[in-house]
Amino acid sequence: ASGYNLTVLVMAAQRVFNKISRKIALFVAILLVLGFVFVVGFTPSMIRAGIVAIFGLILWYFGRKTRAYFLLTFVAAITLIFEPSNLLNLGWQLSFASFFGVLILSPLLQKIFFEKPEKLNSALKLFFETFSAQIITLPLIIFTFGTVSVISIFANMLILPFVPLAMLLTFVSGVLAVVPMIGAAIALPTTWLLGYMIQAANWLAGLEWAQMEINITWWQCGLMYAVMIGAMWWMKK
């Protein structure tokens, strides 16, 4: 469960209810976000995703936009005000590092490699966002766990595109579970799809060369982040 799941819910609510009323779309989308976070649990990553989703919905309702740097700082400040210990929480650190990668590094890389990044297809955008999130979290993961996955990007590319469909089928299966025949008919492809996603992850994780053991010290971790920040500053200039 992550911000990606919330994005799917929010976009679905906007498409369905915005045709009726913008206020209804906002209300339903916020209810879905709060309900999803409540069901999943108030982990640092889900709280971050929930705040971002609600803040983004409010901006959408009033027709406003915000800068990525402000959004990152704003959400981080809110989560730390209510729970200062989050700063030392690995889940919070990884969540905001990946968030930083998607919002800051991914657009910079797209501009470096393509003249018109806004015209990239969804597959390329997914690749750049996945790559950026994993690059930014890499030093922290190596420092904490002493391992690094060499196939995580490929695993995400094989699984992430099917997450919206899996969420939709699972929801419909749950709603129609009491209806004879129809519920079972929908549950069958849902089971196949979820089975594919789990088997793909298990198969890739089971490869002998799927991960490497690397150990770094805290100052090496900081040096890696300093190099990344310098590279991003250069790309922005």
User: How is the largest sheet built, in terms of strand order?
Assistant: 1-2
Arithmetic mean pLDDT: 87
Identify the overall geometry: globular
Distance between the amino and carboxyl termini: 35 Å
Beta-strand content estimate = under 5%
Number of helices: 10
Fraction of residues in helix: over 70%
> What order do the helices and strands follow?
HHHHHHEHHHEH
Q: How many β-strand stretches?
A: 2
Q: Describe the sheet with the most strands.
A: 2 strands, antiparallel
Tell me briefly what this model is:
The protein is mainly α. The protein is 76% helix and 3% strand.
Topology:
Layout: H1 3-17, H2 22-40, H3 44-61, H4 68-82, H5 90-113, H6 122-145, E1 147-149, H7 152-159, H8 163-175, H9 182-205, E2 211-213, H10 218-236
Antiparallel strand pairs: 1-2
Helix pairs in contact: 1-2, 1-3, 2-3, 3-4, 4-5, 5-6, 6-7, 6-10, 8-9
